[in-house]
């Protein structure tokens, strides 16, 4: 599956309607973003079961601000609509594979229980 482009109008439904969504926040002027792009694209081809999406932070400044993107590239991973990974910086291919494997292996019942525990303590 090739990488898709997300906007403020499409991000919510994409995250809700898919099991795993990886989002690369980038900009055309960003050197590390351009270096990470082929790594992200290769991952998208290798893992068609995972939605790989990109958000152009220049075109989607409001969305980037809402999601508190302060440096790029930033990679976010969502599983079952829950943010489970959020890190700035370009990753080499093996590190991206490790992130993806970790996201796939998560026990989502445990994740939801921890979220419930935190919200009841607050």
Automatic annotation (TrEMBL):
This is Thioredoxin. PANTHER family: GEO12009P1, THIOREDOXIN 2. It comes from the Bacteria. Belongs to the thioredoxin family. Gene3D superfamilies: Glutaredoxin (3.40.30.10). Signal peptide: none annotated. The keyword Disulfide bond applies. Keywords: Disulfide bond, Electron transport, Redox-active center, Transport. Residues 1-105 form the Thioredoxin domain. It holds the Pfam family Thioredoxin.
């Amino acid at each position: 599956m090739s990488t898709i482009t997300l906007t403020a109008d499409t991000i919510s439904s994409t995250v809700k309607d898919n099991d795993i969504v990886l989002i690369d926040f980038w900009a055309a002027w960003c050197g590390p973003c351009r270096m990470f792009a082929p790594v992200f694209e290769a991952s998208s081809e290798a893992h068609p079961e995972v939605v790989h999406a990109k958000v152009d932070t220049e075109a989607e400044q409001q969305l980037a601000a809402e999601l508190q993107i302060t440096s790029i590239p930033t990679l976010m991973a969502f599983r079952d609509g829950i943010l489970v990974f959020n890190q700035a910086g370009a990753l080499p291919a093996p590190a991206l594979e490790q992130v993806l494997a970790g996201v796939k292996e998560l026990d989502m019942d445990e994740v939801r229980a921890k979220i419930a525990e935190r919200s009841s303590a607050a």
